[in-house]
Amino acid sequence: MPRRTMIEAIRDAMDVSMARDERVIVFGEDVGFFGGVFRCTQGLQAKYGKSRCFDAPISESGIVGSAIGMAAYGLKPCVEVQFADYVYPAYDQIVSEAARLRYRSNGDFTCPIVVRMPTGGGIFGGQTHSQSPEALFTHVSGLKVVVPSNPHDAKGLLIAAIEDPDPVIFLEPKRLYNGPFDGHHEQPVTPWSKHELGEVADGHYTIALGKAVIRRPGAAVTVLAYGTMVYVAQAAAEETGIDAEIIDLRTLLPLDLETIIASVNKTGRCVVVHEATLTSGFGAELSALVQEHCFYHLEAPVARVAGWDTPYPHAQEWDYFPGPARVGRALLETMEA
After folding, report:
1. Are 152 and 3 within 8 A, CB to CB?
2. 230-254 pLDDT, tens per residue?
3. Would you say the CATH fold of 213-336 matches that of 6-176?
4. Backbone phi and psi for residue 28, each to the nearest 5 degrees, phi listed first
5. Which of 93, 139, 155, 229 has the smallest count of CB within 10 Å of its CB?
6. Which CATH class is domain 213-336?
7. Catalytic residue status for 129
8. 69-101: per-residue pLDDT in tens?
9. What torsion do the CA atoms of 37, 82, 202, 134 make, to the nearest 10 degrees?
10. In the chain, where are the structural domains located?
11. 193-228 core/surface letters (b: 16 or more CB in 10 A; e: else)
12. CATH class of 6-176
């Protein structure tokens, strides 16, 4: 199979979807002629025309609100919010309108929109270009929330999201945009890592939303992670020598609780890793679910490793990220508990 970066895989997913279904349209800030700030939509306007891939004003609430109206009319918008940090003006549209349209209309209308957003750090973007707001959306009934960790999954999950009849928040880790990440280094590794996660099939394929995958089988402790943190967890397991089973959640809502429970019941221990702020982060929900469903199998408290409870630091970006050292300490402490 050809090897692609995550940017290329995401672009290919939109290309395939637009070719298969003329109802699929792509728009957002600078996504047309310019091809998006990260070039995820490069070439789509030239191929499909300005009526199906076009630039929108700098108004996130307008972008998402327009997409909701288009979806109710029968289109399938895939919109880009330039950075996840910019989504807050559109939050009311997402929560009050998109997430509730199916329910408030008693099924007469659905809202098949995808809101794509680059998430997390890795570009020294500081407080307004580096946030990880996934927990704000996993709290909202009616939404689906996806965070891919590699190009193959990014394409399959995005096509599935575009074809889904309900609104999907699609968060794309910026540190993984330009190549695989082995967890030990600040920048993506080139050439492709030994995992060969850049292999992406041509044409149409989907990956079901709500299905996690075990990236590293193990018997000593379960690690729950998503996005960039999958690679950090793998690096921590390699550096400590601990037989950790690493689960890549891929979809946070709906969550593959069955895979989580089976793994934790087997290992008896669990460490949760995410890049977002610790307090009220999605890891809190994961740890609560593990405690509720696996309590009598646990040999140690559930541990969380996450970002600091501070505004996002610029100069200390790489200290803010949970790295292999911090995750490794949590693994060791969990094994010793």
Report:
1. no
2. 999 999 999 999 999 999 999 999 9
3. yes
4. 160, -170
5. 139
6. alpha beta
7. yes
8. 999 999 999 999 999 999 999 999 999 999 999
9. 140
10. 6-176, 213-336
11. bebebbebeeeeebbebbebeebbebebbbbbbbbb
12. alpha beta
